Amino acid sequence: HVQLVESGGGSVQAGGSLRLSCAGTGIHLSSAFCVGWFRQVPGKEREGVASIRPGATTTAYASSVRGRFSISLDTAKNTVFLQMNSLKPEDTATYYCAAQFLEASCAVVHAIDNWGQGTQVTVS
């Protein structure tokens, strides 16, 4: 049974930092084509925030978070992290980790095979 379990969300003041974690069970994140983070606010579509390609060790970021967020994968712990610095109120959302095995563009919702349950991030 595949599970992606996020943790690390919470409330923080603008300018602060949070580190999200996503641990995989029943799945080898290092075998995925992409592992990434998405976020969603009520009434809006889920959007890709950051992704990493384990096989190529390349990363990609949405323009809104580039330079502030950093994604990393610890293969020994089978866990993907999202370090979020210089947080802004517009970063407030539910954050989801995701794994994609389809060899296609990363950070695209319809290509995702497995989703976490989401963790709330609130920046005030």
Structure characterization notes:
Strand 4 and strand 5 (47-53) form a beta hairpin. The chain is built from no helices and 11 strands. The model has no long low-confidence stretch (mean pLDDT 95). The protein is mainly beta. Strands 2, 4, 5, 6, 9, 10 and 11 form a 7-stranded mixed beta sheet that branches. The chain has strands spanning 3-7, 10-12, 18-25, 34-40, 47-53, 58-61, 69-74, 79-84, 93-100, 114-115, 119-123.
Q: Tell me the structural class.
A: mainly beta
Measured as a percent range, the helix fraction is: under 10%
The radius of gyration over CA amounts to 13 Å
Shape: globular
Question: What's the total count of β strands?
Answer: 11
Low-confidence stretches: none
Integer average pLDDT: 95
- Main β-sheet, in a few words? 7 strands, mixed
Number of helices: 0
Question: Beta-strand percentage?
Answer: over 45%
Note the gap between the termini: 37 Å
Question: What sequence of helices (H) and strands (E) makes up the elements?
Answer: EEEEEEEEEEE
Question: Can you tag this structure with a few keywords?
Answer:
124 residues, mainly beta, seven-stranded mixed sheet, four-stranded antiparallel sheet, globular
Summary?
The protein has 124 residues and is an all-beta fold. The protein contains no helices and eleven strands.
Topology:
Blueprint: E1 3-7, E2 10-12, E3 18-25, E4 34-40, E5 47-53, E6 58-61, E7 69-74, E8 79-84, E9 93-100, E10 114-115, E11 119-123
Parallel strand pairs: 2-11
Antiparallel strand pairs: 1-3, 3-8, 4-5, 4-9, 5-6, 7-8, 9-10, 9-11
